[in-house]
Design goal:
It contains eight helices and 16 strands. With 294 residues, the protein is α/β, with parallel strands linked by helices. It folds into two domains: 159 residues, Rossmann fold (3-Layer(aba) Sandwich); 124 residues, Rossmann fold (3-Layer(aba) Sandwich), CATH 3.40.50. The strands form four sheets. It has a six-stranded parallel β-sheet, with helices on both faces. It has a six-stranded parallel β-sheet with strand order 10-9-13-14-15-16, with helices on both faces. It has a two-stranded antiparallel sheet with strand order 3-4. The longest helix has 16 residues. It is globular. The mean pLDDT is 96. 5-O-phosphono-beta-D-ribofuranose binds next to strand 13 and helix 6. Belongs to the ribose-phosphate pyrophosphokinase family. This is Ribose-phosphate pyrophosphokinase. Pfam families: Pribosyltran, Pribosyltran_N. It comes from Albidovulum sediminicola.
Length: 294
């Protein structure tokens, strides 16, 4: 069975890179939004008889999900026997337990919705914290690509004498890989989250690292407050203005401006979400997992 890719609007560049590497076609889909806000889409190239992968990064997900679901349903309706999802950023991974009585556990519900529409999924560095493996919540085959080595190589090539800094214990998993790849030392701090935009970071005395270039690394920058608070604490100890390096450039609201205002040397992200700070191209990491599953 031949395969083909489809790009949800906004995912064209990533999809084109992936299609070229896979030696496959990107099907043309025309999207239209009716005056009442409803979505209309039309496959200009037929998906009949082809294994389809829809590429859709899922930051700001709520507005993307109906177009995504309709795209998958239309592909199937027009005769695609298999439809998969390539989601460079996977949403709804962080509400992985009931933090407050009465809350919904969306990290459990969202996978069931995706499994109604898709036969398989590939993503990059999903936020695995209390969920340790996507198979615990996704009832379809999934593959995960890891961007830490790519980030580590980028740091090695661009930053002198880096000191890798993970803002919290969750970040230890990628901070260690980044540090090893970059040939740099790493420290992991302790963070407590009190609210969406309210975190405190405990930081030991770092005077032994004077002369190093701190590089804050994280999987997601959302409100930016984990980065901002860590930058402030590092700077208060007289260390050099840090670099901030992240996989997923969610950058909600004024996050980027707040991070820059806190005093950084630079900001670099992977291209799992399109953003001007994208410096680390990870599209190639998706080739083998997509080839396995289409
Ligand atoms: O502090 P913001 O940017 O809102 O959120 C991102 C942080 O929250 C955690 O879940 C992520 O791993 C990251 O450390």
């Amino acid at each position: 069975m031949t395969c083909a890719l489809v790009a949800l609007p906004g995912n064209e560049a990533f999809t084109a890179t992936l299609a070229k590497a896979l030696g496959t076609e990107v099907l043309k889909v025309t999207w239209h939004r009716f005056p009442d806000g409803e979505t209309n889409l039309r496959f200009d190239t037929s998906p009949a008889g082809r294994s389809i992968a829809i590429v859709a990064t899922l930051d700001r997900p709520d507005a993307k999900l109906l177009p995504l679901a309709f795209c998958a349903a239309t592909a199937r309706d027009l005769g695609a026997p298999r439809v998969g999802l390539v989601a460079p950023y996977l949403c709804y991974m962080r509400q992985d337990r009931r933090f407050v009585a009465g809350e919904g556990i969306t990290a459990h519900y969202f996978p069931r919705m995706i499994a109604q529409w898709f036969d398989w999924m590939v993503t990059a560095d999903p936020h695995l914290h209390r969920i340790h493996d996507l198979s615990e919540v996704y009832p379809i085959p999934t593959r995960v690509v890891h961007c830490a080595e790519a980030a580590g190589r980028w740091i090695k090539a661009h930053i002198d004498r880096p000191l890798i800094v993970g803002p919290d214990e969750e970040s230890a998993q990628w901070a260690d890989v980044i540090a090893q790849t970059a040939g740099a030392p790493a420290i992991v701090l302790r963070k407590t989250r009190h609210g969406d935009k309210d975190v405190t970071v405990e930081i030991p005395n770092l005077s032994e690292w004077a002369g190093y270039q701190p590089v804050l690394v994280d999987d997601i920058v959302s409100s930016g407050h984990s980065m901002v608070e860590t930058i402030r604490r590092l700077r208060a100890q007289g260390l050099a203005a840090p670099w901030s390096v992240a996989v997923h450039a969610v950058f909600a609201g004024s996050a980027e401006a707040e991070i820059r205002a806190a005093g950084i040397t630079g900001l670099a992200t992977c291209n799992t979400i399109v953003h001007p700070t994208n410096a680390i191209d990870v599209a190639g990491l998706f080739i083998d997992p997509v080839r396995d599953l289409v």
